[in-house]
Amino acid sequence: MPFSSGRQTVVENILGNRLASLIGFGSTVDLVPLVNNTINLTGLLSEAFTVPRDGKITAISASYNALAGQVESGSVTIRAQIFHAPVGSNTFTGTSASVDLVPSITEPIPVGLLVFASATIPPVPVTAGDRLLMVFYISSVPGETAVDIIIGNASAGINIV
């Protein structure tokens, strides 16, 4: 299943608070709060898709093409992760379907820096009607005094069998 931001997207760590980007099928929603591995989309735009049948996520691959930004903390790592909500819920929780993209990003950020990762993962079960989000965010949060912002384009794919 492919995902692409379709336009520039933003991932941020502002004083220890993570703001994620939800990636859809040629679109994105930026600046979504990520708190304790949870995203609540009640009253917000959604990039979630509904799972059509029972299955298992077995692989994930993702890339982020950095175009600009600021890294006050010295170095940041971008993570791509699938978040899951059961039928009838707008609260999404991070799953083990994730990859940390390499290399880490430092300043100065070269235009066009491509970070990437791919992994076969232990199966993550999904049920017909569940909703899934592809989320990109800064996973490394070294402190609460830095402001890190990365602007770029995101794409990813998962395998559901």
Automatic annotation (TrEMBL):
InterPro entries per the UniProt record, alphabetical: Exosporium_BclB
Superkingdom of the organism of origin: Bacteria
Protein name: Exosporium glycoprotein BclB-related protein
